[in-house]
Specification:
By secondary structure, the chain is of the alpha+beta class. It contains five helices and five strands, in the order ββαβββαααα. The structure holds FE2/S2 (inorganic) cluster (2 copies).
């Protein structure tokens, strides 16, 4: 089937196998490899992207379900060479160690700042609990998100 999906403000019209996951569509069909495939089972959060402004695990979705939708991946966060405040805060706080979980962590962090998430560290940790970091960088990640919240006034 043919789908038309907007990714990071560019419209892509592609003919795909109906079984193609949104994650594979992004990585394999479009070559946008910033979104990572960790578990491929909805358990790690490495594949988190935004669809029409909401975060989802792209490994659990079929690309065919998103014909006409607007997807933002980690490649689409920076604008005109300027990092998103969440990306800048992750750098500042050393809120990452590996390239595997970090894109999903950042996409979830950006999303939660516009969700009805409480302002405490525990609230942030709970809202980030779908994103697994196997090395335990959680403390710096929470600090980075709180910094970004202050920067954005969110
Ligand atoms: S790859 Fe999608 S949740 Fe792990
Ligand atoms: S920093 Fe990526 S799994 Fe821990």
């Amino acid at each position: 089937m043919t789908v038309s999906i907007t990714v990071n403000d560019a419209v892509y019209r592609k003919t795909i196998d109906v079984r193609t996951s949104l994650l594979d569509f992004l990585r394999e069909t479009l070559g946008l490899t910033g979104t990572k495939k960790g578990c491929d089972h909805g358990q790690c959060g490495a594949c988190t992207v935004h669809v029409n402004g909401r975060r989802i695990n792209s490994c659990l979705q079929l690309a065919a379900m998103h014909d006409g939708d607007h997807v933002i991946t980690v490649e689409g966060l920076a604008r005109d060479g300027v990092l998103h405040p969440v990306q800048a805060a992750f750098l500042q706080r050393d809120g990452f160690q590996c390239g595997y979980c970090t894109p999903g962590q950042i996409m979830s962090a950006v999303a939660l700042l516009s969700e009805p998430c409480g302002s405490g560290d525990a609230d942030v940790a709970e809202a980030m609990s779908g994103n697994i970091c196997r090395c335990g960088a959680y403390e710096n990640i929470v600090a980075a998100i709180q910094d970004a919240r202050r920067t954005l006034g969110a």
